[in-house]
Amino acid sequence: MVPYGQQIGASTAEIAGFTTVRFGMAVVSLLWMPRLADTKGVKLCILISVFGTAIAYGLQGNAYLFSGCERQLHSMPPGDSMNLWAGHECVVVNGTVGIVETIGNSSEVGVATALGSGGVLECTEDCGNKGGVYVMMAGRALAGFFGGTQPVLRAYVTQISLPNMALVKLRSTVLFASMQAGNFALAPIAGVISRFGLHWPWYVSTGVAVLCLVFVTAFFKNKEESSGVAEFGTPGIRSAPEDILMQGKKKVDAEEGEQALHQLDRGILFKHCVQLQARQFVCRFPLQLDLTMPCKDKILLLMLLAYWCVFQCVAAPWLQAESLSRKGPVACGLRQALILLLPLLLEYESFGLMDPTSLEKSRESLAAATSMVMVPHGIANFAMSTVGFLILSSKIGDRATMRVGATLASALLCFYGYASSELWHLLVLHGFVGVGLGLMVPAIAPTLQRYNTLAHPEKTSQAAALPLFGMQLGQIVGPLLFGLITGDAQDRSRMNLAWLVAGISFLVGMLLMDFCFTLISRHPVMRKLTYTPEQIKTMLETNAQEEEVFVDDMCKLLRGMLTQGSPEYRGIKLWSGVAQRFVARVLRETIPRMREDPEGHLEDVAAWIAKVGTDADLDYFHAKFPHIPRHRRWQSDAYVGEHQFNDDVACISGTGKARSAATVSARIQNATSPVL
Predict the structure, then answer these.
(1) 403-419: average pLDDT
(2) CB of 361 within 8 A of CB of 503?
(3) What is the pLDDT of residues 305-314, one digit of tens each?
(4) Is CATH 1.20.1250.20 the classification given to domain 2-63+132-225+292-524?
């Protein structure tokens, strides 16, 4: 990016602006692309993205065509010399001409001296043509505008994989590993291609985007179009109950309101659960539509903040190159944590990379050392995010694996400044940071995407995009933060402080993520994953509340019954310890302990209903479970006498046999007399 920007005549600020524009438009992309995927389908979204990306790469590759300045030939006799100024780009056309760079306060950056029989230089001066810069800026903006497919793909992979969490984890790991492999495997290839011209990597990227466009057009299918292996593992059966929900919901006019939509949900879910029950599947999906917008989801907003803290430490904006002073090099590196601070750290004398006589050699040494440090990081990250993560998470779980990786990475980030003075120190540290990130990052996507799919079934892509706003904000704020901490002068104490802040920020972000996972595990939609079809059928038939909601309502009711001033207050005087103990005993004995085994549990329920229920309760229960022996309902003495009187009256009217009222009254009195 930097050499190409310099070639097209961009200033340092303009080169930095390329990245700022890219990230800024990426935020806009996260606003419209996930919404398009949720409403019109993932395939259309991907096609538009790939097509726009191809145009963006083409513009960036052709930017050099708009930046040309007039070239001049300089004939130099033997022994002649010529000062080279900032903006000069000279190549030797003929003869022998030596070019020596100048270090100092002078505006001269070098001297060209004719050797032997002299020679000819072809030079171009900075003519102020910014056409290439503007074209490059437009290409970067388009790349950001069409670059918001990451949350769309994550949501799609999760939707086609649930409820098989092992498959979700595997596919998410492969998706992440492919991104990581591209970061360190394709960079050397781009370096080789750039030898034929700095614009050629953009051309190759354009060609790859065109191939992707053809591939997506021919082979990519939306989830509802797929008839392959279903979510429940059976070919030919549409796997996603959420899709059935979504198809039915789209038929409901928005004006009919939430009530009509809820009724449709219940009907579709009931029918589908019955079908799944016949096939002995487990019905795993939310019972009701979550009408909360993802932007109002507190868990996702907290995850946005966590992403901000993490990605302002590990993202990679491009470098800001500056000139060298007489005393030596100043800031010439990437303005952000891992990628920003590494070149700045390598400039210190203890690493032995800076050549005070040559700016170009210093840049080459810094670039080579930075690339060398990235190699063990990339290899360790790739290995641990694939094989290592899958092995360790299978033994201790995803969340524990994430904690191990996050703790390792955050601790080592703090040591970059205080514990490194030679290049091999950074090689070791950066390699182990790659291990930590490789264990941490793959654990995030499966849990978060499963929550998004269950909590926001119609807005899965939008829910997946929300935390990525934090990533973009971190990439924008990070350069400002760490640039402010390090300053322009070489101060090792400020550099050490910057690394310490990076480690603390990373740790805070991971603590927030861990807290988000705690909230996710307690969310009602996650508990619905274990409901059986019979349980869901019963909940729908009886119009049951969520268990947690019902428990909360009962707690509020009990508090009202015991609190003076409440409409539910029962008048119990609780200032007496005797009354308190009596109420506590009655409450404990009201609901008996029941056996866990199914048959014993039903027998206990039958006995409980016979004691405190009504005849209607008994009839309903035994109609559902006729094999359970029917208990005679427990009755007070007055209640028994009343029913015996009614039985006698019915008997008199039915048989015609007269019975005296005195006899009937006597029976009632006997029935209602106290038992001694």
Answers:
(1) 88
(2) no
(3) 998 888 877 5
(4) yes
